[in-house]
Amino acid sequence: MSEKTVVVALGHRALGTTLPEQKKAAKTTAKAIVDLVSAGVNVVISHSNAPQVGMIHTALNEFGKAHPDYTFAPMSVCSAMSQGYIGYDLQNAIRAELISRGIYKPVSTILTQVVIDPYDDAFAEPEKIIGRFLTKEEAEAEEYKGNFVTEVEPGRFRRIVAAPKPQRIVEIDTVRTLVDAGQIVIAAGGGGIPVMEQGIDLRGASAVIEKDLTSGLMAEELGASDLIILTSVEKVSLYHETDKEEFLDIISVEEARQYMAENHFAPGSMLPKFEAGVSFVSKGEGRRTIITDISHAKAGYLEKTGTIIK
Known about the structure:
The protein is an alpha/beta fold. It contains nine helices and 17 strands. The strands form four sheets. It has an eight-stranded mixed sheet, sandwiched between helices. The longest helix is centred in the N-terminal third of the chain and has 26 residues.
């Protein structure tokens, strides 16, 4: 790759929740992506899918309840569907933004599977809440099938699934080939479709992979120079929303590890961003992880703002 490659991980704020919100948000996101392209880098995009996959899972399972001849949709299928329709809006918005700036660069969405370990400890302690509210009877039926549920409100339950760590991105060679050809690539949406290897087959798993960890793995496997994680804040802070709040600018891997050990970052929120960022930077020379919000993506890349691990 002659140009630098940057992997951009989009949080849910970059996509909205409903279909109209997503279409509108994608246009704003496209401007930030094309800003990076104009800085002369190859861009690979991953994205969150929590509201979208939950909506799909709920819709298809409600349909299955109303129409017994149809089967319920497994999580892996819902994840695949979310990659398709999020990618559809993103790639069209990015294409339009490129054309408006006189830039010719193809945009592709890759349906991406990510191998997980069936013995990952996460399966013993599922934590990701998905789908619609369930009655007590429906929750008991889910548990009878071997699924996990949690009571989120008195008498109202929801399913919970595991969040195992990504082991290998199945389509990474396809992503690499398209980046080498100068394309903008959208891949590993929602952390990837979780699959387990069974001989020559890949079997979908009832799980949700942490998007930031997969983004970090993809950045490593592509030999990227930067991992840009776009979230809800311009800079990460210690002692968040207290009178001791301290914003982080450029920090070392050692400092990042210290802050993680001191429990400054919430699990399932900021912590996986630091886990991914530290892992990526520590496994190669000259790498950076930049954590900022979408409106400061290019400024973060230029080290004018954001929290930067290097």
